[in-house]
Amino acid sequence: MTSIVLGQGRDGSDTCIDLPELLATRLLVQGNSGSGKSHLLRRLLEQTATLVQQVIIDPEGDFTTLADRYGHLVIDVEDQSEASLRAAGERVRAHRASVVLNLEHVEAEMQLRASGAFLNGMFEAPRAHWYPVLIVVDEAQLFAPIASGDTSDEARRLSLGAMTNLMCRGRKRGMAGVIATQRLAKLAKNVAAEASNFLMGRTFLDIDMSRAADLLGMERRSAESFRDLSRGQFMALGPALARRPKMVSIGTVETSSNSTSPILLPLEPVPSEDLRDIILEPIQELSPRPRREMRTPPPDLLAQLDAYGTTRETEEEVHNVSSEETSLEPADIWDMVKEVCQTKDAAYKPLATLYQDFQMRARIKGIPRNSLDLAQFQRFISSIRAGLEYERLETEDWQKAEKIAQKLPEDLQGVFLLIARSALDQEPCPSDEAIAEVYGTHSLGRAKRQLAYLEEREAIVVQETPFGRKVAIVGYGWQTA
């Protein structure tokens, strides 16, 4: 049995937590602000840092200090898209990296979307990567609220669905949830109910004390004892902790939090007249700052190729370039984009990488690299991956399909166009492998979920028949064979 010391009991003996049992049965921590929840989570993370992979969903940036001591990777979400966070979640499982998802610098809406995308990426990792991982979610009531708040319903559903998957279906995938909340009454019941281990700290509201007493199997008249707990003291119960409710005082930690506790400082006596002059001092109009001289950045590789193309020495080469540019047709650019799509692993490379490859090929052939902007390049890529020929690009039916696709998230537009092209040509519905390749993933289960998502968005209608899957496009009636 691999146990770690969590703290000391009333009699001074060590209170341990069975780590394998915790990974199988999950943990719920509850306590009012200042009860010591973050200290408890830090103690648990420090004691298990070398034993199991860890992922921390950190809304306040309190746990980023673990990186200095234990080598955790800190992921700041402010510069990341939902698609990149979803992919990062899948890669974290593949490489067994311990990470801290820092949500400190983004607003509540983005916190829900970022955590939901990251957890969904972890949940959808291939079976070969289902290694044990301890997933700690601080302030879980923000990510699995029992009622809607200031955030959009879409963001709340995304985050709540990810938290539900973590606590209800994560065990078979090796994902062990440890969730901490200030108030049980604000946490979704289907998320809290899946935990088998409990650590209940100081709380004062009757409804929270009653729920805590019910979870610990205590009598209602004993619920008021939660008010008497000191900071850092918790009532423990569960197969990984104790068979009967037991009070534990959490042990010391080695790392510190980024947040600071309030400290009383004596006020320095200052005459009120001096304060008046300081506080009501007239505002001075600030003169505009002088512009700093802009330095020309060093040219990148593509810029160097451009410069090389404009300084060719022989008139014959210049003549060849100009004639090539004047005779350039959109169909020729289409063929160049098609060549990019046919390179090895092109389906799994970011759009920016493919676009840079296209620009490089264009300059090698003497074509200006701005001959196709990024938006048009993405349109060509999506149409080519859907199996379309250039002659049909401007047809009325395909423009209708693109109009629907523009209303969908960028990562799903290619999947929809693939289905639309199959329906227009009355071909069978694309296989899971084809959908996964267009979506840019190796997971067939993830590909199937994209069809369900498109159906939820009312873009398609999926019908399972004895002869296979059939899909119809909403609004136009196009159907696959």
Describe what this molecule looks like in 3D:
One of its GO terms (molecular function) is ATP binding. InterPro entries: AAA+_ATPase (IPR003593), ATPase_Atu1862_pred (IPR014588), HerA-like (IPR008571), HerA_central (IPR002789), P-loop_NTPase (IPR027417). Residues 23-213 form the AAA+ ATPase domain. The protein has helices at 19-25, 37-48, 66-70, 82-95, 108-123, 140-143, 153-169, 189-192, 206-216, 272-279, 301-310, 315-326, 330-341, 351-364, 374-385, 396-405, 410-424, 432-439, 444-456; strands spanning 3-8, 14-18, 27-30, 53-58, 73-76, 99-102, 133-137, 175-181, 197-200, 233-238, 242-250, 460-465, 468-473. With 481 residues, it is α/β, with parallel strands linked by helices. The chain folds into 2 domains: 3-250, P-loop containing nucleotide triphosphate hydrolases (Rossmann fold, 3-Layer(aba) Sandwich); 301-309 and 328-473, no CATH class. The chain has an 11-stranded mixed sheet. The protein has a two-stranded antiparallel sheet with strand order 12-13. β10 (233-238) and β11 (242-250) form a beta hairpin. The longest helix has 17 residues, at 153-169. Residues 312-327 have low confidence and may be disordered.
